[in-house]
TrEMBL record:
Keywords: Decarboxylase, Lyase, Metal-binding, Zinc. InterPro entries: ACMSD, Amidohydro-rel, Metal_Hydrolase. This is 6-methylsalicylate decarboxylase. Belongs to the metallo-dependent hydrolases superfamily. ACMSD family. It comes from Ramalina farinacea. It catalyses: 6-methylsalicylate + H(+) = 3-methylphenol + CO2. One of its GO terms (cellular component) is cytosol. One of its GO terms (biological process) is secondary metabolic process. Coiled coil: none annotated. Pfam families: Amidohydro_2.
Length: 321
């Protein structure tokens, strides 16, 4: 079998690292780390990864308070990532960064430049912007643009504005990130944004966070108690809500352990599961989850799909049809 395609792996070029340090922010509760292309290549060899689709982790360019500075930082990252991809297109790709979603014009301009000119593999969004989740009506022009481009959209968790870790011993990536992913996915469903713009192929990080385990509760509760409050374009029945929940793609970064796989493989459509590592923020964890996935009993057809085939169909330039 050919090497894996990793849809959840991060880059942190020096200029971006410097920008974060200048605003005094750590990455969503995770101490700032160093990153190098060589380290990524070594980990890829170790885990049997052939292609890495790079993205920024949280926080992204939207952390900069100045609108123009955020636009410039997103552009700088995208051109850097595009140059890297062009130099080695079989081994690297990238999800483009965009500014704060409240900057509609800046986001649409960068989406068009990244997808049309730089040939990005997709766009990276975060779960929330200034306390607003991704189904927010103000973000509809951005979803319309992504829909019109048939874009792949990679959603990475971050913490909602104003929230703090429960404890220094319980940092956001350990627990809260899963809830944030589930929350923004549920918001996209019940607002009808997911259903209204189906051409945007959305990847949820970390196995979809809490969405898979809470999807039936969401479907029953919304349909039975709150259907009269839903938007006209929202799914109305429990079956429709559940169908929308299963229409996302789900990467397996930090979700490759037995009990999580048991649930995901029973719940999610098999063609919707993708390999992910979360390197370099996950190192030991990435290896543990990858080895667990490799040891998990499944058919050769399913394994090929999770490692390579499903991603190739999502990213035709990597050999899909």
């Amino acid at each position: 079998m050919v090497g894996k395609i990793d849809v959840h792996t991060h880059a942190l070029p020096d200029f971006f690292h410097k920008s974060l340090l200048e605003v005094g922010r750590e990455a969503s509760g995770v101490p700032m780390i160093t990153w190098s292309l060589d380290a990524t290549k070594r980990m890829n060899t170790k885990l049997g990864i052939a292609t890495s689709i790079l993205s920024l982790s949280a926080p992204g360019p939207d952390i900069l308070p100045d609108k123009q500075a955020a636009r410039s930082l997103a552009r700088q990252y995208n051109e850097w990532a595009a140059d890297l991809t062009k130099s080695d297109p079989s081994h690297f790709g990238f999800f483009a960064a965009i500014p704060n979603l409240h900057d509609t014009d800046g986001c649409i301009t960068e989406i068009r430049y990244a997808l049309d000119d730089l040939k990005a593999d997709g766009i990276c969004l975060f779960t929330t912007y200034d306390g607003k989740y991704l189904g927010e009506p103000a973000f509809e022009p951005i979803w319309r643009e992504l829909h019109n481009h048939h874009a792949v959209v990679f959603i990475h968790p971050t913490m909602a504005k104003g929230t703090r870790p429960l404890s220094i011993m319980l940092q956001p990536p350990a627990f809260d990130f899963a809830h944030e992913t589930g929350r923004t996915a549920a918001h996209l469903i019940v607002t009808g944004m997911k259903r209204k713009y189906p051409n945007a192929s959305i990847i949820l990080s970390h196995g979809g966070g809490t969405l898979p385990i809470l999807s039936e509760r969401l479907a029953m509760t919304e349909a039975n108690l709150f259907s009269n409050t839903l938007a006209p374009e929202s799914p109305k029945t429990a079956a429709e809500i559940l169908d929308d929940a299963k229409s996302f793609y789900f990467d397996l970064a930090l979700a490759g352990t037995g009990n999580v796989l048991d649930m995901l493989l029973k719940w999610a459509p098999r063609e919707r599961l993708l390999f992910g590592s979360d390197f370099p923020y996950a190192t030991v964890e990435a290896e543990y989850c990858t080895r667990s996935l490799e040891a998990y009993e499944m058919s050769d057809k399913d394994r090929e799909g999770y490692y390579v085939g499903n991603a190739r169909r999502l990213f035709p330039r990597l050999g899909g049809k």
